[in-house]
Design goal:
seven-stranded antiparallel beta sheet, FBXO45-Fsn/SPSB_families, 19 strands, B30.2/SPRY domain-containing protein, SPRY_dom, alpha+beta, B30.2/SPRY
Length: 346
């Protein structure tokens, strides 16, 4: 029994504009159903599409009393990102020195403390100083290399700046999260996630903390006990049934290790990556600045799986869906390997 008996089966808060499944009796917020399924929504448990408003049920009076008295309604999530952490605000406020930028004739700025060694005021001016001579020399073979090199060293600078102000685990390429929300049957033992059951239905494990801004990288390492392929990726929502695969929904994006990329379907996807079950390791690369999702396998870049404006908006939740008997370890808070970063930024 839930705390009030009137919780939504998706968001686990008191149901607002409550809809009751006529077949199994589960209750939902009308908004939660519409956000996930659109107008043709269905019960995540029995798949029935027959619902009735709670006002048309004998529970009407009890529901209205709970709704009027309960403060749970104040805990409903607000669909907007939190303010930028203080570290980002500090990074956004440049400290200028007395010396002029090497590109002063164009930018009219002094040297930025972050670019003291390069003697420029910004990444744009560093780009200008490096690239323009190559264009003048028609040295096109080195232009792309120089662009990648500048972007990579800028990401390192951002990490160093963050570390200097005491937040080394936040920023480009380095972040910490925990897989701590999971479907029935999944067990968590420190950094190991395990599923061992008779059923052949996918169960999702995810984080209750979403990602915002920046570039992120983490690894998923299948355990030897794994007997079936898994789905590895991200979700832009946390309102769904964890007893299903996150990529079954239109807000879930997964590298399915049968060699497919899945989104919004439990049966179809386009060819992507490699096939494997319980060997190697998968790297997940997420660039929320550009809206790009990509994967690697055993350190080899598999290519960009998705480019979408949706990936520029937080929160985004790391996810893995397991089937039958499976398990994995994960690593986060690690920098992006340089060879992957160079290919990812192209």
């Amino acid at each position: 029994m839930t705390e009030t008996g009137f919780e939504c089966s998706l968001c686990i808060k008191i149901a607002i504009s409550a809809q009751i499944c006529e077949k199994c009796g589960l209750m939902y917020c009308k908004q939660c159903l519409q956000e996930i399924f659109g107008q043709n929504y269905e019960c995540v448990y029995c798949q029935s599409q027959k619902f009735k408003p709670i006002e048309q049920s004998p529970l009407k009076e009890a529901y209205e009393e709970i709704l009027s008295k309960s403060q749970l309604i104040l805990q409903k999530k607000i669909d907007k990102p939190p303010p930028d952490p203080p570290v980002l605000e500090q990074l956004k406020q440049p400290i200028f020195l007395k010396e002029k930028c090497l590109n002063f004739d164009n930018c009219h700025q002094n040297i930025n403390q972050m670019f003291k060694i390069e003697q420029v005021c910004s990444l744009e001016c560093q780009f200008f100083i490096k690239i323009v001579p190559l264009f003048e020399q028609q040295d096109y073979s080195n232009i792309r290399k120089e662009i990648i090199n500048i972007e990579y060293h800028q990401s390192i600078k951002n990490q160093q700046s963050i570390q200097q102000i005491g937040l080394s685990q936040f920023g480009i390429g380095v972040t910490q999260f925990t897989f701590n929300r999971f479907g029935q049957g999944i067990q968590i033992n420190q950094s190991q996630i395990l599923l061992n059951e008779e059923e052949y239905t996918f169960k999702t494990v995810t984080s209750n903390v979403g990602l915002y801004n920046g570039i992120y990288f983490w690894k998923i390492i299948p355990l030897a006990i794994t007997k079936n392929e898994m789905k590895i990726g991200i979700s832009t929502s946390d309102k769904y049934d964890l007893k299903t695969a996150f990529s079954d929904y239109n807000f879930g994006y997964a590298f399915y290790t049968v060699g497919q990329f899945r989104n919004g379907s439990n049966s179809n996807g386009f060819e992507y990556g490699v096939k494997f079950i319980n060997t190697g390791e998968v790297g997940v690369l997420l660039d929320m600045n550009r809206g790009v999702l990509a994967f690697s396998y055993n350190g080899n870049f598999l290519g960009k799986a998705l480019c979408s404006e949706q990936l520029k908006k937080g929160p985004i939740y790391p996810c893995v869906a397991l089937l039958h008997q499976a398990g994995f370890e994960y690593q986060c808070g690690i920098p992006i390997p340089q060879n992957l970063l160079e290919q990812f930024l192209r």
